[in-house]
Amino acid sequence: MNLRATALLFFSSHQSPLNPAGIQARHIEHNLVLIFGITSAVYLIVIAVLFFGVLRNHAREGFVPHTLVEDPDVDRKATYIVGGAIGATVVLLFVMMISSFITSHRTAVLANAQSLKIDVYGHQWWWEVEYPMDEQPFRMVRTANEIHVPVGSVVTIHATSRDVIHSFWAPNIHGKKDLIPGYENDLTLEVDQPGTWRGQCAEFCGLQHAHMAFDIVAQSRADFDRWYVQQLSAAPEPTTPQTIHGRDVFLNHPCMMCHTIRGTTAGSTVGPDLTHVASRSMIAAGTLKNTPGNMAGWILNAQSIKPGVRMPPNPMPGQDLNDLLAYLETLR
Amino acid sequence: MNEQHVVIAEESYTTTSDAERAAQLAKVWAEPSGFLGWFKAVHHTTIGKRYMVTAFGFFLAAGLLAGAMRLQLAFPEAHIMSPDLYNQVFTMHGSVMMFLFAVPMMFEALSVYFVPLMVGTRNIAFPRLNAFSYYLFLFAGLMLFAFFFVNSGPDRGWFSYVPLSGPDYAPGKRADIWAQLITFTEISGLCVAVEVIVTVFKLRAPGMSLNRIPIFVWGEVVTSFMVIFAMPGVVVASTMLLLDRTASTQFFNPAVGGDVLLFQHLFWWFGHPEVYIIFIPGTAIVSTIAATFSRRHVFGYMALVLSLIATGFIAFGLWVHHMFATGIPQMSEGFFTAASMMIAIPAGTQIFCWLATILTGKVVLKTPMWWVLGFFFVFIIGGMTGIFVASVPVDLQVHDTYFVVAHFHYVLIGGAVFPMFGAFAYWFPKLTGRMLSEMLGLWSFWLFTIGFNITFFPMHILGLRGMPRRVYTYPADAGWTALNQIESVGYIFLFLGVAVFLYNVWHSLRRGEMAPANPWQAGGLEWATASPPATYNFLNMPTVNGSEPLWDALPDQPVVSGMHEDVREIVTTRILDAEPEGRDEMPGPTAWPFIAAVVTTALFIGSIFRPIAVSIGAIPLAIALIGWFWPTREESQRRARRNIWEQS
Amino acid sequence: MSFRSREFFAFALLVSLCACKREQRIFDPGSAASQPAGATPLTEVGAGTSPPPGNRPNAIAESAYAVGEGKRLYQAYNCVGCHANGGGAIGPALMDSEWIYGSSLEQIHSTIVQGRPNGMPSFAGKIPDYQVWEIAAYVRSMSGQLPSDVAPSRSDHMPMVVPEQSRPKEHPGAEHPQPVITEPQR
Lengths: 332, 648, 186
Prior knowledge:
The structure holds three protein chains of three kinds. Chain A is α+β, with helices and mostly antiparallel strands. Helices cover about 40% and strands about 20% of the residues of chain A. Chain A has helices at about 1-10, 25-55, 70-110, 220-230, 240-250, 255-260, 290-305, 320-330; strands spanning about 115-125, 125-130, 140-145, 145-150, 155-160, 165-170, 175-180, 185-190, 195-200, 215-220, 280-285, 290. Helices cover about 65% and strands about 5% of the residues of chain B. Chain B has 20 helices and five strands. Chain B has a three-stranded mixed beta sheet with strand order 1-3-2, with no helix packed on it. In chain B, helix 8 (about 260-295) runs antiparallel to helix 12. The two termini of chain B are about 25 Å apart. Helix content of chain C is about 35%, strand content about 0%. The N and C termini of chain C lie far apart (about 70 Å). At the A-B interface, helix 2, helix 3 and strand 9 of A face helix 4, helix 10, helix 11, helix 12 and helix 13 of B.
């Protein structure tokens, strides 16, 4: 237990398979620890044998020409020992194999349960997230890079890609699953620890593979429902002159060529849906905290932050930028 | 093989003195000299040395690229390299290490140089093909680096998955260059595989029956067969990619029923055996060195050989464990988990046999043996972490993270680079006739070993803390900074270790102690000839009486006599028992392989830009091949005479 | 050894001639290249003509990456909605030789920025300037007017279309009679 506490101190992270926050990650961690225990024990034994063997056996005098040290009796004994070692190897491998099978089975059983379905689409280099819970298409929650899930419910991530292969990986919750164009993969998971758990693309997907992260926000059922209802709504109408001007800036700039704000004329799906952008904690796929300063830098020149990203630089006068930021702030 | 003399010819020759025979053989087997002679050389020791120098050069270049990556990753959110350059650098590092260093060094260079010596013959089978394969390999590397220096280095990873490397997402010619690099190096590897198999199966010294073949040679034979079965897979994949990109085929286009996963299956069908292609020669080197420096025959010869063969077979049954995350059915997962774990059985068997060899022998601690001991410390860790990635649930967590980076560096550097340095230290006297400095050798060993562990051990932890692979940078608050900085410091030690090694080689070449024919008192046939060997390898073609021919030789071990020594003649033997079967003549020096390689290179590079180059280039290639195989009158007459003798 | 390095440099030089520009990836076009809204010099550009905009557009037309970006943007900004994938629908086809407003990079650029009568809207202020150049370069590639090693290849989402790099070269040159001349409205 003490060992485990030390290990946690060392590994504890919001993006680590050794700090599980989901049922699947917990099972996998147990399997990992078992394999770690067996393999380290075997390794230590082998190295100890080698070490003492060399220490006991090494010749100080160097080469003695034409003398070999071979003894058929010793070799016969060694044959038994080697045979035994191979047998032990087979047994240990069998143990680890069975434990893998059991773990695989345990992580998969939830797949049949009643679950909340979330569609995740990989883009270069961000995550599109849809909650197709309502039957009517216009009442659908669409967000980006932030997946809200209720704690203690079974969730099925239905994943595919809009361009190249990506891989969905939130290590604290579950192992990874590839997002492959032409294929649809399901990943069933259940988070049992509230909190924000970071995940990241794990399959090389081009220039900004390094900046393609997302957050899984695990919250109580009530909080989740509140969030969900709020996300269903369209963007609020701006009320102050500043925010009204901000919206006009948005609609008259390249912004509206790529982004959607439901409730306005901006309806393009090239980039992330911004209807509730202010409610998200990170921007640029987990690259920057969602603060006005970061947002300003991102709008003015995203290329200096994430070179190669699809977002073009948008130079604009300071007043316009201020008003635009004020408008975006209202999109909660 | 206990008869007194193995007499090949029916008419016996008048025995001249050894000195006269040596002069005669040297004349017949002479390599052409001068500038133009460089292009005509066909002897396996010449080509083998070129392979080693070239492959080691690529190792150094790729190592420097690794240094660039370590510099970039030493600081979070660093801007030392742009992501575009970083992607080129890590792709180049992987591709160069795998295709231009590891396979050419562990398989092509070592087997071309040593297999003919170890089986006791005078040249490798198909020596002109051998020269051709070397030039193709050289040109592949030159092409890749030339393109890299003009900002056209491949940037899609050494695996270049579609659709990322496909026509829609990889503009420019970078991915095409990667695809043709594969074709080049794989053709080169396939040529050598054929040569090695024929050399070992038909040209062994009389008496070297299958159960007396040196373990190293067994390793290279198993590797050759793996090359023959694995490499066509990747050549097909890269050619389909190239066709998709340049000739508008639709192999990987999901819109018309093409399949992006097909590429992964084809690639890993090759890619997984590739790992074994790289370290099976390494383990064979370990067996060789461990036997010599434990002063005994290797323990469990038969078990070791069977393990090598078993590894070769099982290696083809576990490619899918690179694709567990793609969502394959649970049944297949189970199968491939079992297969992946099964490969630990032959690997374990080998390790236990080596341990038994060391424990029951008398260990002489010289530099080659130190590298072997280092191999144990490092490679076994790699093998153990291999069990993590074989287990599906655990693999889903560690796949594509730094844990895997650590795992395969422990396997490949442990399984190939440690034995390679051991092999250099061990065979350097044979290659050059000079001894390496023991002190500098130990320095480079310790620097390299310590540097290696500082660099790569923390990667296990990084992976378990969630750092994915192939990222050009990472956030400052992820908790990965300190470990990355430790790794970057480790690189300095690695660099110094290699630098000391290079200095050792340079120094020894000029001032090293002269090496005797058999400085380690070893048992292999390669030690039965001068250091460095003459171009005819052996003055008297040897016969063999055991798996370590020099240790097992009878007091009056016979030699082959009655060879025609005025032509490049060799003995052929039967596959199983290596009884003499006939004689054959080796082709002499010629520049045609070089010309053919130049034409092939032009054809391949041209095909990147215009697919029609394949058809147009076939014409000069045909001319080069006609020149290559054009027989001389004397050769055909001799061949006709030999046939008559063989039939009678 | 000296021979090898000499051969190597000769080879590298040869390759560099064709590769340098083609593989350029310009991520940050600088603030000057992406014009602020409303700053498009509408009045200076007439149909079929345009002031030389410096070296930048040519660099874009020679960079495979930029043309690839143009292809992506052509989809992203819904040019396909009217022009389809070059075959034309509501808007005119772009893979043939019927070019009313000229086929040079500059002319296509001004067509996109200014818009044209009978349906082509103006994208001034909507699309950053450097992206307009990228789209223009891609449009030229659709009629085979870019070198095939720069033009994009087939698309992963389209089964039937001939890739830009293998299209027969059309010459929708400015010499084509221009039935409609529009004067910029002041």
